[in-house]
Amino acid sequence: MLSSIQRSKRKSRNVKLIVGIPLTIGLLVTPFGLEQLNRKPDDTLDVFVGMDIGYGDEQVALKLIDKVASYVNLIILGSLNVTMDTEALTRVCDHIYQKNLHFIVYVGFAAEGYTPPRGPDSGFFNLAANRWGDKFLGVYLFDEVGGKLIDGAHSVNVTETENYSEAAILYTHHLNYFLGNTTKFYEPAKFNLFLSDYALYWFDYLSGYDVVFTEFVGNNSRQIAAGLGRGAAKTLDKDWGVMITWNQLDLFVEDPDQLYSDLILAYQNGAKYIVVFNSPGEFNAPTEFGTLTVEHFDAMEKFWNYVKARPPFVEFPANEAYVLPRDYGYGFRGPDDNI
User: Fold this and answer.
1) Environment class of residue 35 by beta-carbon count within 10 Å: exposed (0-12), middle (13-18) or buried (19+)?
2) How does DSSP assign 148-165, residue by residue?
3) CA-CA distances (angstroms) from residue 304 to 68, 113, 238, 260, 263?
4) C-alpha span between 54 and 51 (Å, rounded)
5) How many Å separate Cα 328 from the centre of its chain?
6) pLDDT value, residue 300
7) pTM over the 0.85 mark
8) Cβ-based burial of 251 (10 A; exposed 0-12, middle 13-18, buried ≥19)
9) For the chain, does the N or the C end have fewer beta carbons within 10 angstroms?
């Protein structure tokens, strides 16, 4: 994390090989041949389309929720300024519920050690199930643990191992321990665990996550990102999603036309969750709504109408696949990426 009260989406970077770092994915199916996709016979909307409010206070969150409420069905409350204030978080969740939207609450690593995590009070998620029912989808627990690991910038450290298998075991066991300590802090509440990441999706799932959002970031291949995320989820019988994050050059979201194209690509590849990251009040955000402009919101609304008019995709025939050695992985961001 970049500070004790805030988080950010890191840019994907091409860096030199870091020896001893584990990587992910044993099997992925790449999303080619989209024109051959089969569709469900009905037109029910069974995909979650939303926005991640990554920064800002309670008033900022309320303003953004009102802005997008007519063309999303999911809000991720990603600002620790909100999620660490249980009273404010409860008010914001009440507002989301009144808007008939689903929501996910972000919880960060403990400031030191394993507990307490940076999030609401220990009884909050037990309240959530009773107060908001199925509108509360779960907890976004930590952030980009796999990607930060291969870039050497994360507290789930695996720095020296004998081989890839040992690295894989250490990573999954260590991360699972982090997850277990955090969920135990909130017992007896039960909830699904969500994560956004740009590498190691396979091992993220093995560590205990229920849903992993693969990130569309910078100029990295969207097709490979979708294939990696979908391949891991499909093989392990999990749900997956897409988080559209930074433009690599200026730390702001991509232009509206590219955003719309990426939203369509995520949907056509079968992502169950499709989320746009927004960063109000940070990095000199250019508009009153954060890193998103009015044109970005227009693209999101256009996508919402696109989804409502078309049944979801359920079959994903692919004519190419990458198969990597057991417990071996590769960042897939360029020829010099980490292993």
Assistant:
1) exposed
2) HHHTT--SS-----SSHH
3) 11, 42, 24, 10, 10
4) 9
5) 23
6) 97
7) no
8) middle
9) C
